[in-house]
Amino acid sequence: MRAAHLPGLALLLTTLSLPALCAETAPEASAGDEKPVPEARTWVTQHRARIGGSVIAYTATAGTMLMKNDADEPIALFGYTAYTKDGEDPRTRPIMFAYNGGPGSASAWLHMGILGPKRTVLRDLEYNTQGPFRTVENEFSILDQADLVMIDPVGTGFSRPVGKGEGKDFWGVDQDIESVSDFIVRFLNDHGRWSAPKFILGESYGGMRTAGVSQALLEKHDVALNGIILLSPYLDFGSGHAGVTLDVPYVNFLSTYAATAWYHHALAARPAELQPFLREVEAFAEGVYAPVLYKGSRATPEERRQVLEGLERYTGVSASYWDKANLRMDEGQFLQELLRDRGKVVGRIDTRYVGDTTDALSENMPYDPYSAHVAPAIVATFNDYYRRDLKVETEREYILSGGLYRSWDQGHAQPGRRWKLPYPDTKMDLAHAMTLNPRMKVLVQSGYFDLACPYRTAEYAVEHLDVSPEVRQNVTIEYYEAGHMMYVHEPSMRKFKDDLAGFVSANH
Fold first, then answer.
1. Could you tell me the CA-to-CA distances from 344 to 243, 358, 448, 464 in Å, in that order?
2. What stretch of H or E contains 446?
């Protein structure tokens, strides 16, 4: 998931779309009674746009790539959209592969929100649900700095299993890492980009994927990356998933609960400034809250009282509620409870957003107001842009979110381990990739109002990477006063582009 614009924002050059050139591969022959394999198709269009203060000419290639297994049998059509700046040497021009997360989320959020040459007109904090929906040239696109390949993993967008492929071959932590890695290598082959500086950007679950892909590319294919960008990343089930019988995530989530309560004026004594307040909450979480959670029933009544008072003071939720929750509240419970008396539910993807609750008695949030505010405009503009501007001809529905997480294989075989963990954690994959390629840099981008992947979960992951102090210095963290998709917030959108462009420029 996941560009707010000033009403008077002027864009100086309209994108020009020349007649589309359709390149098709021959249909695969069917064997016996097997269903014929759909053909891979691409549509190529030429454009010009003003990005980063300059007019650039670029080529857009949209469509699918036919992927095969080791036996040369078709297994998937992999959907993608590639943007390449005209007149550049493909051996030296940086290239960035990017995707969203989910798992099961297509890349339209990043594509139309911040990275692509066109972006959806979104009004931050407003319901973007009434047409006509519009796009504008995206002056914040990364295309002025690097060529861009937007990837839709199998089961999302127009990507799907075909031939010998089945959903279970792709829908899992390790299966997903393997298939995305194979696609990237195939793209490098087909487009002559082996020598180019290479970057990967993954949002949300895309962070877990990117950590695994960076290691898999290096170990299996000898592909070394210049850098990776972990945008609002989810890297570790154990430390980043509240609602389970582990204490660490509750500690990591607390500062974002506090930021959310501060934003909505739900605190009895609200400080004037956010940052000093967050430092105070972080100290409480680590020094007071975490030890009591660790002690469990051994905590004294006085220790428990001190924690309850702090939880009420910092989150705006009553001590009695926290007490009934045994000091542990997941984000769904918090977001429903915080503004319950106002009849409102708070967003999870971006906690600045609110909506009317549909069930005032529910223990958990009945829906996410952020998605309700933003998704209709993203879906409408992507479909119109893909067919009108990029000339893609298809009757298939673009799957924005396939709900693949419901049947996702969460097990993960970490590098160097002899067994497969039953839960996802790719911090070790990232640590291996950084150690074996100590020149690879890492940019982490986190929003203070993100309760899908709170900023402290990202910090915790970095703090617990098993790497040398020298290698750990390759990680930079940038923060934004918005949520999971911080680029819907106009000041954060500008900072996002500056941070990303600076990262790419400094690392090739």
1. 22, 9, 21, 37
2. strand 441-447
Three-class SS string for 45-86? EEEEEEECCEEEEEEEEEEEEEEECCCCCEEEEEEEEEEEEC
pLDDT, tens digit, 9 for 90 and up, residues 174-224: 999 999 999 999 999 999 999 999 999 999 999 999 999 999 999 999 999
Token reading at 472:
């750990």
Give me the residues paired with residue 85 across strands.
58
Report how many helices (DSSP H) and strands (DSSP E) the chain contains, helices first: 15, 15
Would you place residue 245 in the very low, low, confident or very high pLDDT band (cuts 50, 70, 90)? confident
Mean pLDDT of the region 342-353: 98
- Amino acid in the structure at residue 488: V
Class of domain 21-238+374-506: alpha beta
| Amino acid of residue 140 | F
User: Residue 238 pLDDT > 50, yes or no?
Assistant: yes
Residue type, 24: E
Distance from C-alpha of 284 to C-alpha of 159, rounded to nearest angstrom = 46
Cα 271 to Cα 66, 259, 262, 268, distances in angstroms: 56, 11, 8, 10
Does position 155 have pLDDT exceeding 70, yes or no?
Answer: yes
3-state secondary structure at position 103:
coil
> What does the block give as tokens for 336?
């429903």
Residues of the chain with CATH 3.40.50.1820: 21-238+374-506
Residues 6+ apart with CB under 8 A from 250: 242, 289, 293, 327, 328, 329
- Closest of 160, 227, 192 to residue 433, by C-alpha: 227
When the pLDDT of each residue in the chain is averaged and rounded to a whole number, the result is 92
Contact (Cβ atoms closer than 8 angstroms) between residue 61 and residue 43: yes
Peptide bond into 132 cis (omega under 30): yes
pLDDT of 267 higher than 90: yes
| pTM of the predicted protein model | 0.92
Q: Please name which of 422, 354, 378, 351 lies closest in space to residue 100, comparing C-alpha atoms.
A: 378
> What is the predicted pLDDT for the residue at 417?
82
Distances (CA, A) of 338 to 94, 141, 316: 45, 36, 7
